[in-house]
Design a protein that fits this description.
Helix content: 55-70%
Strand content: under 5%
Number of helices: 9
Order of helices and strands: HEEHHHHHHHH
Radius of gyration: 22 Å
Number of strands: 2
Mean pLDDT: 76
Strand order of the largest sheet: 1-2
Structural class: mainly alpha
Largest sheet: 2 strands, antiparallel
Distance between the termini: 51 Å
Length: 182
């Protein structure tokens, strides 16, 4: 079985390196013939169960640009207070934007442990920053817990996030969990 995996890996690396071959001066692309096909084992996909991704194993697919966008959209307490004062009957736009960006990254993070690990580091920064809105910190805390459910090996990272979290954010998270249970 190991020899077969090595052969498959060798063929796959030929494809990755641009596996084009010339046969009688006709270019034949071998990629389609040796691409592994993913087979779903369940009829239903769970958002908390990691799904295989076609990218190379071990490399995160979340880009630096996506992480920079997440950092740029972190809603600060002062901004949220201003937005709420202007329109108290609407969710602060900065919180909405942050939640949208974070949601997109969570889609990637729930599929691959490498992406989850990268995202967990960013969530730690979010929670540790006292200038960030407590509501955003709660989002970061709850999303870190979702990553730990999908990838139990990341539980220690989530425990670390809780240890640096603002007590007010932890209190809001506990309240959120209580409301959801009811």
């Amino acid at each position: 079985m190991e020899k077969r995996n090595l052969v498959s890996l060798g063929l796959l690396s030929l494809v990755v390196l641009g596996g084009y071959f010339m046969v009688d001066k006709t270019e034949v692309k071998q990629e389609e013939e040796i691409q592994p096909k993913l087979v779903s084992t369940s009829s239903e996909e769970s958002p908390l169960v990691p799904a295989k991704d076609k990218t190379e194993e071990g490399l995160p697919t979340i880009t630096r640009g996506e992480l920079a966008t997440l950092r740029d959209t972190l809603p600060h307490k002062t901004d949220v207070k201003k937005e709420v004062a202007e329109n108290p009957h609407q969710t602060a736009p900065s919180l909405v934007k942050f939640a949208e960006v974070l949601g997109g990254l969570m889609d990637k993070g729930l599929k691959r442990v490498e992406d989850a690990s990268v995202l967990l580091n960013e969530l730690t920064e979010c929670v540790a920053d006292d200038a960030v809105s407590e509501t955003a910190q709660v989002l970061c805390l709850s999303h870190s817990e979702k990553l730990a459910i999908a990838f139990p090996d990341l539980k220690a990272g989530v425990d670390q996030i809780h240890s640096v979290a603002n007590p007010a954010a932890l209190k809001l998270l506990k309240k959120k969990k209580t409301i959801i249970k009811q």
